[in-house]
């Protein structure tokens, strides 16, 4: 059964953040809030956890398009090819925010990203995932929670999410109701921003 931790953005308790980080360090899969929708994620460097995540999504590990969640732009050089100063300024102007930016990947990506030529980078404007990444010391990954409900594209109620994923994940972080609009996906691989999916973020 998944454990539920109530961590609210107004006053996130460090001991609860530490508990979430410990789950990740032990190879766990967690559901956590962001500035858009609730997402499922794990430690980017734990291949077994990444395989579990792919299994939950019903895809093969080599077919995944999981975004990388950072707490700032300092991790960019670890995963992406060098970017132009103008592109960096563009990113800095829009992050943290409700965007997923597609950039060219370098060869230092973790094993689970083998063969990926591009990678999606997220810096959510939400204190909980920011604190988790900071405490963990490196990024986590993100993939959206889809709802079977035809009206809402994504699940917003953390209690219903916990009920649905109870036997699939190790931890659900309840930060209150989430949004039902996903991030805006912007391709920056050509140097000029191209919107691939319009979501919550407005350029």
Molecular structure report:
It comes from Epilithonimonas xixisoli. GO terms for molecular function: double-stranded RNA binding. This is tRNA threonylcarbamoyl adenosine modification protein (Sua5/YciO/YrdC/YwlC family). This protein has helices spanning 14-25, 47-57, 76-79, 85-94, 127-136, 158-164, and strands spanning 3-6, 30-32, 39-41, 67-69, 99-104, 118-122, 140-144, 171-174, 184-187, 194-197. It is of the alpha/beta class and 203 residues long. The protein has a ten-stranded mixed β-sheet with strand order 1-8-2-3-7-4-6-5-9-10, sandwiched between helices. Strand 9 (184-187) and strand 10 (194-197) form a beta hairpin. It is globular, with a radius of gyration of 16 Å. It starts with a strand and ends in a 6-residue tail after the last strand.
Characteristics of this structure?
alpha/beta; DHBP synthase; 6 helices; DHBP_synth_RibB-like_a/b_dom; Sua5-like_dom
């Amino acid at each position: 059964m998944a454990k539920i931790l109530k961590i609210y953005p107004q006053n996130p308790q460090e001991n609860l953040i530490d508990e979430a980080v410990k789950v990740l360090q032990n190879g766990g899969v967690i559901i956590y809030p962001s500035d858009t929708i609730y997402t499922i994620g794990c430690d980017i460097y734990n291949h077994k956890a990444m395989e579990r995540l792919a299994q939950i999504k019903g895809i093969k590990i080599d077919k995944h398009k999981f975004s990388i969640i950072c707490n700032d732009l300092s991790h960019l050089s670890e995963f992406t090819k060098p970017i132009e100063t103008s592109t960096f300024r563009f990113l800095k102007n829009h992050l943290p925010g409700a965007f997923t930016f597609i950039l060219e990947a370098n060869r230092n990506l973790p094993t689970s990203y083998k063969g990926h030529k591009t990678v999606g980078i997220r810096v959510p404007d939400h204190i909980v995932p920011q604190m988790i990444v900071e405490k963990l010391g490196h990024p986590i990954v993100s993939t959206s929670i889809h709802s079977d409900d035809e009206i809402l594209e994504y699940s917003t109620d953390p209690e219903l999410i916990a009920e649905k994923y109870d036997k699939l994940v190790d931890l659900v972080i309840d930060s209150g109701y989430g949004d039902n609009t996903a991030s805006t996906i912007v391709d920056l691989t050509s140097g000029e921003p191209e919107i691939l999916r319009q979501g919550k973020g407005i350029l």
